[in-house]
Amino acid sequence: MKTDVEIAREAQLEPIETIGGKMGLKRENLIEYGKHMAKISKDTLDQCEKNEDGKLVLVTAINPTPAGEGKTTTNIGLTMALCQRGKNAITALREPSLGPVFGIKGGACGGGYSQVLPMENINLHFTGDFHAITSAHNLIAACIDNHIHQGNTLNIDSRKIIWKRVMDMNDRALREIIVGLGSEKNGFARQDGFDITVASEIMAILCLSKDLMDFKDRVSKITVAYTYDNQPVTVADLKVQGAVTMLMKDALLPNLVQTIENTPAIIHGGPFANIAHGCNSIIATKAALKLGEITITEAGFGADLGAEKFLDIKCQAGNLKPDCVVLVATIRALKYNGGLEKENLTQEDVEALVKGAVNLKRHIANMKKYRLPIVVCINAFPTDTEAEIKALEKILKEEEVSYALSTCFAEGGKGALDLADRVIEVLDQGKADFKPLVNESMTLEEKLLCLAQEIYGAKDVIYSKDAKSQLARIKDQGLDHLPVCVAKTQYSFSDDPSKLGAPTDYSLTVRELVAETGANFIVAKTGDIMTMPGLSKDPAANHMDIDKEGNITGLF
Length: 556
What we know:
Layout: H1 4-10, H2 16-21, E1 30-32, E2 38-40, H3 42-48, E3 55-61, H4 71-84, E4 89-93, H5 98-102, E5 110-111, E6 114-117, H6 119-123, H7 129-149, E7 156-161, E8 165-167, E9 177-179, E10 190-192, E11 194-196, H8 201-208, H9 212-220, E12 223-227, E13 232-234, H10 235-238, H11 241-247, E14 255-259, E15 264-267, H12 282-291, E16 294-298, H13 303-318, E17 324-329, H14 331-337, H15 350-368, E18 374-379, H16 386-398, E19 402-406, H17 408-411, H18 417-429, H19 444-454, E20 460-463, H20 465-476, E21 484-487, E22 507-516, E23 521-526, E24 545-546, E25 552-553
Parallel strand pairs: 3-16, 3-17, 4-15, 4-16, 8-11, 17-18, 18-19, 20-22, 21-23
Antiparallel strand pairs: 1-2, 2-14, 5-6, 6-14, 7-12, 9-10, 12-13, 14-15, 22-23, 24-25
Helix pairs in contact: 4-18, 7-11, 9-11, 14-15, 15-16
């Protein structure tokens, strides 16, 4: 089979105004970035507010493994299949980060014959949203150090600056750095560091804001440091919320592109799900709901991370009510969860599959707690055997969930028609009665314990010494009513990536609590989770190239 980039290059793209026309938009509703990309104008977003919402379908998955699950590919394939069934379906996705693009994971445009296009542009600079976020974030960082250098009238304790700098690249050497070295004119020397752009609170705010003014208000409330007497210092204190918002004016508009079968795709924002809330922007999702009959969106990594945060954070912030959850699993990944080594995953092993299916069962049980109907997508691979498929189907029948096999990677929308039919059936039944698992009335400890026990399978929560003191400060500031965003490994329900399957009877350890007062949630960091990833020994960047004609190879 051809590579993703070869398939993408051979696709016949339609002009972006034609794609907009499929959603009822005209050329004047779009701000074009070349022939095949555009932003939807603010006036258009405002006009759409009067439209009724369509149906909302969330695509999530089991915990990721080296075998791959194909969540984004399934999202795109399902959207195209729904369109083949005569539905006005729109996919709403996150933008790719350059860190994973050049690292191990690759881009975020799907794969095979279920891609969003133009994949080369989307996976690289796209419309510049991430660059705007990086610039806006680092403007705040520059203003903090400048304020201290210019006299420090806010009384900022340089040892208590919590606002790091960011860049959209995996670079472990920047996790801990010293700034301000040299003469006095270079500022005061202090310890600092970098996070990856997708971990920036500016990214989280972009994805949770309702509009430009809501964004500006949230930015003004960001806590960037503390004074010598432990009082919070905000962006409003630095008086730069206007400048930050100005930089983000265009970045707040959602991006319109197309699938490989020329159906509309709205792509906007891109926080990671293991260190942030892992969903595309509320603005983009609402635009899709107003412009389409069915919106297919996604949440990053496994359902214990992305789906939980979508349902407990994004849906409450945006007043969204999902109608269905599609849970993606592969037989290969389930065998890996059952203890089979990566190099043996192509071999038939029903025993390992059945053993590893506990991971899928846990996710099914968790999603049912939100009172939402579930459709399991078995993302098929050529190495799946008839015995393995039958064994998995037997398990799903016992779980009493709807399911379908999908071959959309190899066949595009045609390969997801059965999945589309199951989704249509569920939507027509209208059995969704969505209710979040955690809510504002619960204390921070109650929220964390609820998630630990109900979603992760832990018996209790343990707080480090630092986390205990941070918890006390959060309570003193009256912030413990805020939603909690757990930063946790994506590879396991637990905070230990080596614990596969569905671990139980363990303690979830919270080592740090950070109040993101602009995003309006508390980040609870567990395990060894890092907000600045590093590159592997053999990163994807080593296998990419471009020729004199501008043809790219190795991008996926």
